[in-house]
Amino acid sequence: MSARPRTAPTDDRHTVRAALRSPRLLRAEVLGGLVVALALIPEAIAFSIIAGVDPRVGLFASFTMAVSIAFLGGRPAMISAATGAVALVVAPVVREHGLDHLIATVILAGALQVVLGVLGVARLMRFIPRSVMIGFVNALAILIFTAQLVHLRDVPWIVYPLVAVGIAIMVALPRVTTLVPAPLVAIVLLTGAVVVAGITVPTVGDQGELPSTLPHLLLPDVPLTLETLQIIAPYALAMAVVGILESLLTAKLVDDVTDTGSNKTRETWGQGAANVITGLFGGMGGCAMIGQTMINVKASGARTRLSTFLAGVFLLILVVGLGDVVAIIPMAALVAVMIIVSIGTFDWHSVRPSTLRRMPLSETAVMLVTVAVTVLTHNLAYGVLAGVLAAAVLFARRVAHVTTVTPVDGGPEGERTYLVQGELFFATSDELVHSFDYAGDPDRVVLDLSGAHVWDASTVAALDDVRARYARRGKGVRIVGMNAGSTDRHDRLTGRLGA
Q1: Last residue of a domain, which of 333, 349, 365?
Q2: What is the pTM of this model?
Q3: Domains of the chain: total
Q4: What is the span of the domain harbouring residue 411?
Q5: Which end of the chain is less enclosed by CB atoms within 10 A, N or C?
Q6: What is each CA distance from 167 to 163, 173, 230, 235, 331, in whole angstroms?
């Protein structure tokens, strides 16, 4: 019998209906969406450049992803848009085959995500250890911060005071009032100061041309052949996996920040459907964005799908209808916002000396591996995969050392009993084989497995090897005490595993 996935109860205040009825909640949703839209513009342009496409492709993708996922996603208040992780995956497609193949790749990736969501791939999230999650969060914070450094190089000196003032506003204002999101105040004040004083600094408009028309429905002009599928399938699969991984980890982070639950399976297929829609409107695809999501839920206090929907709507209005106004926003203001986001995202408790002293060395090592690989590759999927593999290896090593084989004294004459205790699997099989006195034992040997569990074929092969070693010396082995699961696995495999 299958059980429905459990999620934490949803707070009644965290619904669109509640937000529409409360001016205070509605203000948080609207202003949160506006701040996110402003922060999305330079990011979408930058990711378009990474992917090798026109900035409009990234901006339209951010609009369609945000609006679609507001209805389809399983995690309210989470922001999905064009991302750097997806841009890195699809860049070779654009470079080698052009924009139409990119759009076909995005549509196929979305379809794969829908299939994976229906198959329940979201349940695999439980195999990601806490130390990997902490490493994921810390690596994201570092990447968000380092991504801002490019906007602080070779710029007029006045940029640095502007960034400092923006940071000061966002630190001080919440202590006075939370009626208006501090990031929005910082953006408005810094933009006003730059315009009034006539200061020449890098602006959003310098990042790339903003679109002047609405996106329209289109189909990629690619031949529907097996050759096309062979070209786009590897990139589509990579994009699907990276998008699911980044989205589900971000959803888990938002669950913790807001103390609410989410439907990870719905989020998985919702991301896929959003990517299909994005591809059909000529976008480059995307997934959840940790930085903009943290702006929405932490800095602005938004909690519902309304903020996500409005982020997409405001983005389109800003770049199409108010492009001239958005273009004059100084990059210093947005850099200040993202620096504050990176500081708030980093898990400072995880690196305190008191925490590191208490934490097992293996847990700290897994966190550091996750951070290092993610930061070095700029790919969250690689970092999380490396962290999970490191955790699995260290766990197997630790469990392997708690398996014991102890001779039991006082048995019948001519018989010796060994008490085997612990978890028996591939990491313990070699040690198990070499734990017996084959030459010195009597003719009858009993292996008592009442305190052990047989987990895999490696253990069954090891027990067969033990029997064979004793048999070559004319001695018999009897195995007793196995539980039902171990007995079933042993009986199905023993003597059938070859040499």
Answers
A1: 349
A2: 0.71
A3: 2
A4: 404-493
A5: N
A6: 6, 10, 48, 39, 13
Together in a domain, 201 and 299:
yes
Contact 369, 394 (CB under 8 A): no
Final residue of a structural domain among 325, 349, 373: 349
* Inter-residue contact 312 to 62 (CB < 8 Å): yes
- Helix locations, 73-214, DSSP H: 84-97, 99-118, 130-149, 159-176, 182-197
Secondary structure percentages of the chain, helix, strand, coil, to 5: 65, 5, 25
In a domain, 28, yes or no: yes
355: in domain: no
Q: Which residues of 6-32 are buried (b: 16+ CB within 10 A; e: fewer)?
A: eeeeeeeebbbeebeeeeebbbbbbbb
Considering only CA atoms, give the Rg of the chain.
28
* Residue matched to tokens 């389109």: 316
Q: What is the CATH number of the domain that holds 415?
A: 3.30.750.24
Closest CA to 78 of 274, 232, 219, 339: 274
Kindly give the pairing relationship between strand 444-454 and strand 415-424.
parallel
pLDDT tens, position by position, 233-243: 989 988 998 88
Amino acid at 418: Y
- Residue among 10, 75, 140 nearest 308 (CA): 75
Q: Which residue has the tokens 């949803």?
A: 10
Interatomic CA distance for residues 477 and 90, integer angstroms: 59
pLDDT tens-digit series, residues 452-493: 999 899 899 999 999 999 999 899 999 999 999 999 999 988
Yes or no: say if 38 and 334 are a contact pair by the CB < 8 Å rule.
Answer: yes
> In the structure encoding, which two tokens stand for residue 327, read together?
């273009």
- Which uninterrupted H or E stretch holds 250? helix 226-258
